[in-house]
Amino acid sequence: MAPHLRTISREEHLAFVASRPAMSHMQVPSWGDVKPDWRAESIGWFDRDGAGRERIVGAGLVLYRPIPRVKRYLAYLPEGPVVDWHGTGLRQWLDPMLAHLKAQGAFSVRMGPPVVARRWDARTVKDAIADPAAGRLRDVPPDSQEPRAAEVVAQLRALGWRRGEEESEDGFSAGQPRYVFQVPFAGLSLEEIRGGLNQQWRRNIKKAEKAGVKVVEGDYEDLPAFYDLYRETAARDRFIPRPLGYFQRMWTVLRAEDPDRMRLYLAQHDGETLSAATMLTVGNHVWYSYGASTGRKREVQPSNAIQWRMMSDAHELGAAVYDLRGITDTLDESNHLVGLLRFKVGTGGRAAEYIGEWDYPINKVLHKAFTLYMARR
Predict the structure, then answer these.
(1) Which domain holds residue 296?
(2) Cα 192 to Cα 88, 143, 198, distances in angstroms
(3) Is the dihedral of CA 334, 336, 338, 339 positive or negative?
(4) How many whole angstroms separate alpha carbon 326 and alpha carbon 143?
(5) What CATH number should be reported for the domain holding residue 199?
(6) Model's pTM, two decimal places?
């Protein structure tokens, strides 16, 4: 029998989160509190066990974004929903979800299936960066491929879903990275993880230790110090910074749900904070979320020091994966993002490609109008 879907309480959603080894930090109830401009709803899929008792078998956090002057919504499930993507068929999960979201006033649905398609080892990515003929990571032969991912893509297309990048060049403003860099921790000692770092990383960690860099855990009161470095980083790396209030809200609501959900780290030298970063945890998956640093005293390597402290703490928490989040797809040395890619590659992990975000236009006219509106912003 196909599972049925209904709105679930925060308590039901958290119980489902606790029953899973891990899921995206954007699929826990508190993430809806991080986004006050969106209306949040937790949904759950249910079937019955052998005794006829109802049990939850899937869940999703839906964020509803209103469009101007019209009481209709873009329904967005970032890095979700959490269902059996490789089971007997996606229709039994997605059809009731679409019906529910349409009844809630959604004109379009966007979701990010947590399905990895391909992976590249650190050595492969490093060699590709050095190869002038390698323009993009997507064109580099992967070291491993997940055959079931192609089945998911084929099912989505057959059900009328469209990959977000195919919809328009810019797509919606809401979106998560398709390419990420992750360090596998499962079954490895901390010494083995350190041994997987490249030589430059190990050298820089030693430099930071000898120079007297201290990495400490921060608190709510330290968020302004993080934010000062974050604004400097935004100007240097050419992105628009989020406001301080966003991080203060993240801290308050995520830690209210679970004290380990978010941590703040500060790398200090002679009383000066040189680097700062946030770390998020759900189950055995740990993310390096936001990072910030100053251009001063780079020679004492505070960024390597803070990452190694976070990796060490993640290992102590029992992490199976340390996730450094998004990386650029371009391998062009002239692109300013390649430096960040090279930094992450130094951890010795693997680049991963997800199958991307997918749209279902319930109302094609409103979907197209909203896409054009967001492209002009």
Answers:
(1) 186-319
(2) 38, 21, 12
(3) positive
(4) 19
(5) 3.40.630.30
(6) 0.93
